[in-house]
Amino acid sequence: MPYSFSVYGISTGLLKFGDNFVDRIISALKDTDAKKIEDGDIIIFAESPLATTEGRIVKLNEIVPSQKAIEYGRKYKMDERLAEIVLRESDEIVGGVCGYLLARRGNLYLPNAGVDESNAPSGYVTLLPKDADESAKRLRDEIREKTGKDTAVLVIDSRTHAMRMGVCGVAIGVSGILPVTDERGKKDLFGHELHVTRRAVADNLASSAELLMGESNEGVPAVLVRGYDFIKSEDAKIEFIAPEDDLFLGLLKK
Predict the structure, then answer these.
(1) Which distant-in-sequence residues (6+ apart) come within 8 Å of 34 by Cβ?
(2) How many alpha carbons fall within 13 Å on the CB side of residue 6?
(3) Which of 129, 173, 183, 233 falls 20 to 30 Å from 153 in CA-CA distance?
């Protein structure tokens, strides 16, 4: 692995439904030190602007809340229309705090099922991409078609962690890169063999990108990483742990 790599923020301007995200990135890169996309680059896309360009955006005034959404809205002091969207995007609601529902969406447990009011037009919310791995593949294929370069692509979001203040980046979709590397069998500095350790490479890259993307009005919806020696994979997807094997969920269930 290299001891250094470069990370470039890409400021595309405000994105809206129907905009071509890849075209905007290619154009905006000309004004950065990276200049253009090269073989081996990793292009990292923020999920909210991506969802916006894909049409995964909902107008709150068009939502009629169900009785269940009204109950959740009252219980957790949140907009009943937002609660309704969260219900529609969720497979299960497992709890909540003021303003948020903790929802299971597939193999993910997310605040408000990933439904986001920030960085959306007034009166709208954005939803997660329907299939973030598929979105990553589509973007990677489009980059290859338009530039002739072989890259990796991450779709990322920001997440909270149990009993930790603040958010950090996490990959929710990948293409062309192995998101988790297996360190088992390697030796540490004292010669001890590692038995359980796996490195969340995609999540670590996502967090580095988040430092440039920010969470408010930075206007940097994508990041280019250059010089990171990642493991290529054509069929890798985000990996999950079954709830019964997860240390934290398992303890809570007990």
Answers:
(1) 6, 8, 41, 224, 226
(2) 13
(3) 183
pLDDT at 218: 76
Residues of the chain with pLDDT under 70: 1-3, 215-216, 242-254
Q: CA-to-CA distance for 13 and 54, rounded, in angstroms?
A: 16
88 Cβ neighbours under 8 A, 6+ residues apart: none
Quote the DSSP letter at residue 54.
T
How far, in Å, CA of 218 to CA of 59, rounded? 24
Residue 77 tokens, joined: 């002091």
Tens-place pLDDT, residues 112-159: 998 988 778 888 999 999 899 999 999 999 999 999 999 999 999 887
Is the pTM higher than 0.85? The answer reads yes
